[in-house]
């Protein structure tokens, strides 16, 4: 009984605590379910609650793959790249050779590998939302490999011993694997092995070559083993260098090395890039004799052809080299054409200058005209892409121009005869003669006038001298003067006559003028005598 009040008191306290907890829980629930939009309605000091932000959606990861075509090949290796992606890509950065430098920013670039090796390729891409991703791959560029295989002989009777010879190019060292009889097993790993075929049949000897970069090359050589042996031998063949094209001629020299005569012998050449068109035949070839077969073929190869010729039951290897076709540049041919045209024009100008100066160059003009015709032909050949023919024509024109220039330089002037010179200068000569005639006439007129004046002066001087003599004589002795005067009178005609002769001897053309002067002198003497 004494503990009853304590128990009741404890129950009352417990009830109060439970009630307080229920009220507090209801208050919290009302605040969470009915938030107030007015901040003033909240009790002072109460904490504000913000609405929660939803978390961002997770991003799709960017995934890319590089595609390469081809990833392996012989140099020069032309490779094309591409990228597959699960998201749109906005930019690309490519490194094709692992040097850390940007080689391209294209979506689908290409690249040429000119040196053998293993190359690491890397691409880094970026999306529109700035996601980036990178991927890498490899490209293997190998040195090109070729091989020439000879088997001697290719056919014969059993047992047939065949010697194989191989010449390979590529990245050394090489590995050789031979299967001589089609049984699938390796018969030899030598470069130049020999093998004996014991049984009659047709065989395909197979060779596989592998170089240091992993390149592989396979060759198959057919071998025929028979019971019949004609004993024919291929002594030689020519030419061993042919042009690419149709109707090429090959001559074979055949020898019968057996004991029996072989009849109806013909030949056929077989090989890649060579086709037999026709063959001559040998009707009969006796033991020890030799004869020739002529084969016409078409050749489509560009470097060399490994062919074989089948003669009766025998097959022999042929190694024919093909002459490479010369490549001509159209621009270079047009430049040469233009230069030659200018040379011809200059040559024609020189020709006309020489001709106007009297040089013997008439025949040279035919060469100039011929050069003009060839230039027109070369121009037409270039326009029709016949570059080889155009090159030959232009070279001929150049040679012709050189010869014509020498002829022009060595040409000589024409040597004229006196009659040709006289005919060409007749006008000048006539003018000179006319001038000389005028000068002669003038001189004659001056000479005649001077002569007459001289005669007059001479007469006057003589008259004065005679007058002085007569005056002095009259003063000294009149009688004597009279006597002398009479003598002079008698001598006067004679004196006048001699004077006239003297004048006549000095100038014969003036006889008519001299006589009147003589008469005048005689009359003067007579008058003096009368005085």
List the helices and strands and how they pair.
Elements: H1 4-33, E1 64-69, E2 72-74, E3 77-85, E4 89-95, E5 110-113, E6 117-127, E7 132-142, E8 146-152, E9 155-157, E10 160-169, E11 175-179, E12 194-197, E13 201-210, E14 216-226, E15 232-238, E16 241-243, E17 245-256, E18 262-265, E19 267-271, E20 274-279, E21 282-285, E22 290-299, E23 304-311, E24 314-323, H2 330-356, H3 364-383, H4 387-409, H5 418-424, H6 426-476, H7 478-506, H8 511-530
Parallel strand pairs: 2-7, 9-14, 16-24
Antiparallel strand pairs: 1-3, 3-5, 4-6, 6-7, 8-10, 10-12, 11-13, 13-14, 15-17, 17-22, 18-21, 19-23, 20-22, 23-24
Q: How would you sum up the major sheet?
A: 4 strands, mixed
- Counted by DSSP, the helix tally is 8
What is the gyration radius calculated from CA atoms? 67 Å
What overall geometry do the principal axes of the alpha carbons give? flat
| Structural class computed from helices and strand pairing | alpha+beta
Low-confidence stretches: 32-47, 477-531
From the structure provided, what is the oligomeric state, counting identical versus distinct chains? Answer: single chain
């Amino acid at each position: 009984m004494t503990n009853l009040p304590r128990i009741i008191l404890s129950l009352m306290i417990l009830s109060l605590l439970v009630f307080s907890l229920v009220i507090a829980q209801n208050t919290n629930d009302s605040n969470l379910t009915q938030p107030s939009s007015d901040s003033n309605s909240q009790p002072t000091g109460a904490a504000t609650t913000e609405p929660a932000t939803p978390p961002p959606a997770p991003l799709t990861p960017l995934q890319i793959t590089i595609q390469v075509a081809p990833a392996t090949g012989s140099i020069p290796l032309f490779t094309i790249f591409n990228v597959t992606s699960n998201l749109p890509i906005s930019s690309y950065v490519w490194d094709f050779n692992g040097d850390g430098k940007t080689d391209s920013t294209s979506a689908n670039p290409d690249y040429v590998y000119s040196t053998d090796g293993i190359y690491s390729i890397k691409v880094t891409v970026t999306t529109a939302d700035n996601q980036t991703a990178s991927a890498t791959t490899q490209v293997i560029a190998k040195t090109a490999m070729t091989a020439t295989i000879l088997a001697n002989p290719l056919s014969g009777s059993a047992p047939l011993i065949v010697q194989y010879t191989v010449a390979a190019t590529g990245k050394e060292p090489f590995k050789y694997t031979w299967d001589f009889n089609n049984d699938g097993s390796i018969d030899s790993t030598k470069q130049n092995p020999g093998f004996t075929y014991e049984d009659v049949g047709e065989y395909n000897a197979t060779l596989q070559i592998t170089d240091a970069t992993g390149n592989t090359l396979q060759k198959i050589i057919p071998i025929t083993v028979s019971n019949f042996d004609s004993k024919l031998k291929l002594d030689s063949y020519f030419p061993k260098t042919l042009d690419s094209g149709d109707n090429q001629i090959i001559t074979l020299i055949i020898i019968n090395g057996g004991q029996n005569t072989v009849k109806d012998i013909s030949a056929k050449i077989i090989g890649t890039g060579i086709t037999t068109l026709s063959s001559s035949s040998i009707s009969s070839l006796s033991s020890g004799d030799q004869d020739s077969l002529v084969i016409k073929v078409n050749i489509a190869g560009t470097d060399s052809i490994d062919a074989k010729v089948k003669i009766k039951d025998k097959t022999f290897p042929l190694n024919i080299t093909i002459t490479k076709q010369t490549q001509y540049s159209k621009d270079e041919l047009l430049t040469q054409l233009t230069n030659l045209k200018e040379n011809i024009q200059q040559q024609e100008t020189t020709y006309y200058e020489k001709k106007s100066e009297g040089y013997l160059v008439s025949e040279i003009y035919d060469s100039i005209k011929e050069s003009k015709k060839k230039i027109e032909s070369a121009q037409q050949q270039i326009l029709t892409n016949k570059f080889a023919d155009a090159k030959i024509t232009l070279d001929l024109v150049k040679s012709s121009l050189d010869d014509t220039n020498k002829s022009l330089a060595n040409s000589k002037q024409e040597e004229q005869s006196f009659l040709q010179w006289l005919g060409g200068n007749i006008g000048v000569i006539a003018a000179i003669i006319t001038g000389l005639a005028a000068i002669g006439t003038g001189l004659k007129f001056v000479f005649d006038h001077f002569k007459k004046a001289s005669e007059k002066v001479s007469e006057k001087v003589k008259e004065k001298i005679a007058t002085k003599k007569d005056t002095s004589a009259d003063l000294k002795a009149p009688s004597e003067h009279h006597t002398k005067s009479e003598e002079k009178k008698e001598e006067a005609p004679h004196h006048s006559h001699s004077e006239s002769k003297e004048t006549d001897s000095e100038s014969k053309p003036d006889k008519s003028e001299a006589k009147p002067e003589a008469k005048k002198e005689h009359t003067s003497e007579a008058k003096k005598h009368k005085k």
